[in-house]
Amino acid sequence: MSVLVTGGAGYIGSHTAVQLLGCGEDIIILDNFSNSSPEMLDGIRQISNKTFKFYEGDMRDGALLDRVFSENDIEAVIHFAGLKAVGESIQKPLEYYDNNINGTLCILETMKKHNCKIMIFSSSATVYGNDNPIPFTEDMKTSAINPYGWTKVFIEHILEGVCEADKDFSAVLLRYFNPIGAHKSGIIGEKPNGIPNNIMPYIMKVASGEYDHLNVFGNDYDTVDGTGVRDYIHVVDLADGHLAALAYARKHKGAETVNLGTGKGTSVLELVAAYEKASGKKVPYVFAPRRQGDIAACYADVSKAKKLLGWQAKYDIDDMCADNARWALKE
Ligand code: NAD
Ligand code: UD1
C-alpha cells in the first residue's frame, strides 16, 4: 500500500517525503510545480537514496486523479498541495478558493470512489484568527481575515463533515505554526518564488547580500522587545509530526485537530540574532510600521500533539537557523 503526497515537491511536502521514505513507506508524489520544481524531487531521491512514483499534474484534474488511484493501491493521502501566499489570496480570491477548496474536494471525491479513508491535512495556525488568547488550543473558535485563511477554515469543516458522514474515515487536521529551517544535508529547503512574504526567506536574502536590510514590522507590540513573536518550528520536526499523525490515523477513525508547534515564542529580533550567530553573517534591519493583519504574539499549546500523537518538537531556534543557513548560503 502507498501514501499519496500531494504537493510533495514543495517545502514541507519534500521534507515529509524524505522522512516517510526513511521509515520505509512507499510514497507517490503528485505536484503541478506551480510553486516548486523537479529539483526538489531530485533532492528527495538524493537524501533518501530511494525511488518513488511521481505524477505531474493538477489535483483538480479528475481524470489524472482517477489514474493515480487506479494504478496504485493508495491507503492514505497526506495533502499539502495548495496556494499559500496571504497577500496574493487577497488579490486573487477565486484562484485560491478554486485551487485549495475545489482541489481538496476533487481529491476527496476520488478517495471516496477508490475507498481510500485516511487524510492528513495541512491546516494553519492562521485559523485561530486575531482575537484568541495565547497559547492557542485546538478547541478555540476559528476564523480568518483573508481568503487563504478561509480556505483552511472551510477545508477543516469539510473534513469534519466527511468523517461525520463516513464513520470509517480518518482525518488529522494539522495546524502548523511557523515552519522554518531546512534538511540538515543542505540539499532541500525553502525556495520561494519572487519577493518573500514570510520572515525567514527574507532574512536569508539579507544574509546573502541580495537585499540590504530587513524591515521589522512593528517595534511597539506588547512583547519581550516590542517585535512580533511567533512559534517557529523546524520543518523536519513538522515532517515527523505527519508520520505520527499517519500512525494515529491508521489506528483511529474520525477527525482530530492537532497543533504542530514548539510551544515557545521567539521575537523578530531574537530570530535575527539567532540567524546572525548561526550563519556568521550580518542581518541589518530597520523598524517599519506594523504589517496589516499581524498579531503581536502567536504560539501553540502543544499538549494535544504530545498526548494524542506522542510527538513533540526536538529542534530549537539555533538548530533551525543553522540548518537554514547551511541550505540558503551554500556556494
Ligand atoms: P509550497 O508552496 O512549498 O508547497 C505546496 C506544493 O503544492 C507546491 O509544490 C505546489 O506546486 C503544489 N500545488 C499547489 N497547487 C497544486 C495543485 N492544484 N495541484 C498539484 N499541486 C499543487 O508550500 P508549503 O510551505 O510546503 O506548504 C504546504 C501546505 O502547508 C500548504 O497547504 C500550506 O498552505 C500549508 N501551510 C504552510 C505554512 C508555511 O508557512 N509554509 C504554514 C501553514 C500551513
Ligand atoms: C504569515 C501569514 C499567515 C500564514 C503564515 C505562514 C500574514 C499576516 N500572516 O504568518 O496567515 O499562515 O505566514 O505562511 O501574512 N516580519 C517582519 N518582516 C518581514 C516579514 C515578517 O518583521 O519582512 C515579522 C512579522 O511581522 C511577524 C513575524 O515576522 O511578526 C513572522 O512573519 P511571517 O513569517 O510572515 O509569518 P506570520 O505573520 O506568522
What does it look like?
The protein is of the alpha/beta class and 331 residues long. It has eleven helices and 14 strands. Helix 9 crosses helix 11 (317-328). It has helices at residues 11-22, 38-48, 62-71, 86-91, 93-113, 147-165, 199-207, 235-251, 268-279, 303-309, 317-328, and strands at residues 2-6, 27-31, 53-56, 74-79, 118-124, 170-176, 178-180, 214-217, 229-230, 232-234, 254-260, 266-267, 285-288, 297-298. It folds into two domains: 2-181 and 232-261 and 301-315, Rossmann fold (3-Layer(aba) Sandwich), CATH 3.40.50.720; 199-229 and 264-298 and 322-330, UDP-galactose 4-epimerase, domain 1 (Alpha-Beta Complex), CATH 3.90.25.10. It is globular. The strands form four sheets. It has a seven-stranded parallel β-sheet with strand order 3-2-1-4-5-6-11, sandwiched between helices. It has a three-stranded mixed β-sheet with strand order 12-9-14. Bound molecules: nicotinamide-adenine-dinucleotide (NAD) and uridine-diphosphate-N-acetylglucosamine. Uridine-diphosphate-N-acetylglucosamine binds at residues 84, 86, 124, 126, 149, 178, 197-199, 202, 214-217, 228, 230, 268, 291, 293-294. Nicotinamide-adenine-dinucleotide is lined by residues 7, 9-13, 30-36, 58-60, 80-84, 99, 103, 122, 124, 176, 179.
Please indicate the percent range of residues in DSSP E strands (runs of 2 or more).
15-25%
Helix content: 40-55%
Poorly predicted tracts of residues? none
* The CATH homologous superfamily of the largest domain: NAD(P)-binding Rossmann-like Domain
| Spatial strand order of the main sheet | 3-2-1-4-5-6-11
Q: What is the count of helical runs? A: 11
